[in-house]
Amino acid sequence: MKKMGSVFTKLTLGVTLATAVVACNQNKTADKATATPAAASTSATGTAKSEIVYINQDTLLTKYNYVKDMTARLEAKGKAAQADLQSKGQAFQREVAEYQKDQATMAADARQAKEQQLGRKQQELQAYQQNTGAQVQNDQGAEQAKLYEKISEFVKQYAKDKGYKMVLTYQKGNANMLYGDASLDVTAEVVKGLNDAYAKDKK
Question: What is the pLDDT of residue 90?
Answer without folding.
Answer: 96
